[in-house]
UniProtKB/TrEMBL annotation:
It holds the Pfam family AAA_16. InterPro entries: AAA_16, P-loop_NTPase. Coiled coil: none annotated. This is Putative ATPase (AAA+ superfamily). It comes from the Bacteria. Transmembrane segments: none annotated. It comes from Paeniglutamicibacter gangotriensis Lz1y. Residues 16-176 form the Orc1-like AAA ATPase domain.
Length: 371
């Protein structure tokens, strides 16, 4: 039997833990149709928290409701690809009627070589109007999802916003969900161009509850006939810190070592250890690579503490003023990597990041300056 856990960015997990609230609102939106609040959302959260997985789930749900989804990961040429996606849906609908059938379209799979021109932009609006008008007759609509939305070219985003807004004004059934890391999203929202995005419903993803993690692990191990005790489930759940990427990593490695003879205390601890190592080389390094050198130095100085760090101590260790260090505090809060922990204190959001930084501080920054 194949390992049921999926510790890969963007992969669909065996259970999507703890995202019911966000999805309920979306489903209500699909049922209420044009103009419903759940149809315009922005998902944000740190790396590995499950933004892409949630987008994918939203697309499948839309499909089940007869909505036509077009998904894209932001790279230049977004609008031209969306146009292709709209054409594909229109063609399919033309062919298949009266038998009503919708399939998912991945805009990202269209190769695009040219920029969209103003004439072509009007065309996109017309074609989207045409598609959503047909879909409305069937009581459904069009869903556009854009992952890593902060990488969208600004002028393309302005045009996309204008088009979507136009359709909403005309009472046409259009849904839009974007996703990205918090810092980038907040830059985007502060930008004057995105009044449309500011009106979107913010879905801020956080760790999931340990009880829910334990239930999901219990179910997945049972479904694949690998024995695990309640105590072991509790320990495994605790080791994940409720962080979705780590749930998959811990599940994957414990399952892999235990698939023949069931989970033992030894396979459990070895699996957790392997998961932690992988977390460092995958998610944590990626999250750190998003940052500037000073951001990383801040984190390295923070990691000296066990538990929350006083800002005053971080400033001292960096040899800078509180005011200077405060700028970096703000930036890091915006990335979702740290959070406030009471007055004048901050702590890490991502599990094992402090440990990872302590082990790798030398490579990361300031060789030779331990504290
Ligand atoms: N709600 C969830 N329950 C269980 N596992 C999840 C959940 N959400 C995501 N995962 C798993 O966590 C890992 C990371 O998910 P995903 O790639 O969606 O994160 P992300 O927020 O998009 O990260 P990035 O910012 O790096 O793109 C994947 O292995 C995925 O299967
Ligand atoms: Mg992602």
């Amino acid at each position: 039997m194949a390992n049921p856990f999926k510790p890969t960015a963007g992969a669909e997990p065996p259970h999507l833990i703890g995202r019911e609230d966000a999805l309920d609102l979306f489903v209500e939106g699909l049922e209420d149709g044009a103009g419903a609040p759940g149809l315009l959302s922005i998902i944000s959260g740190p790396r590995g928290i499950g933004k892409t997985a949630l987008l994918h789930r939203a697309e499948s749900i839309a499909l089940e409701h007869g909505w036509a989804p077009i998904s894209d990961t932001a790279t230049p040429g977004l609008l031209e690809r969306l146009k292709h996606g709209v054409e594909v849906h229109l063609r399919e609908l033309g062919k298949r009627e009266p038998r009503w059938h919708i399939t998912a379209v991945q805009a990202a799979s269209f190769a695009v070589t040219r920029e969209i021109t103003p004439a072509s932009q009007i065309d996109l609006r017309e074609r989207m109007t045409e598609l959503t008008t047909i879909l409305r007759e069937h009581g459904t609509g069009l869903l556009i999802t854009v992952d890593e939305i902060h990488s969208v070219d600004r002028s393309e985003l302005v045009q996309l916003s204008a088009t979507v807004q136009h359709l909403i004004r005309d009472g046409l059934p259009i849904a839009f969900i974007g996703a990205g890391i918090p810092q980038a999203i907040s830059n985007l929202l502060n930008d004057k161009i995105s009044t449309f995005l500011r009106r979107a419903d913010p879905i801020v993803l956080d760790s999931v509850a340990l009880d829910a993690v334990r239930d999901s692990l219990r179910q997945t191990f049972a479904d694949s006939n690998v024995a695990i005790s309640e105590d072991q489930l509790t320990m495994a759940a605790q080791a994940t810190g409720g962080y979705p990427f780590l749930v998959q990593l811990v599940g994957y490695h414990v399952w892999r070592l235990s698939k023949v003879d069931g989970v033992t205390d030894q396979t459990l601890s070895r699996g957790i250890e392997a998961a932690r190592k992988r977390l460092g080389s995958t998610v944590l390094d990626t999250a750190l690579a998003d940052l500037s050198d000073v951001d990383r130095t801040f984190l390295v100085k923070m990691a000296i503490d066990d538990g929350p760090s006083y800002m005053s101590r971080i400033a001292e260790r960096m040899g800078e003023s509180i005011k200077y260090v405060g700028v970096y505090r703000r930036r890091l809060l915006d990335t979702g990597i740290i959070r406030t922990a009471g007055h004048g204190k901050v702590e890490f959001t991502l599990p094992y990041l402090a440990e990872h930084l302590r082990n790798h501080a030398v490579q990361l920054h300031n060789p030779g300056q331990g504290s």
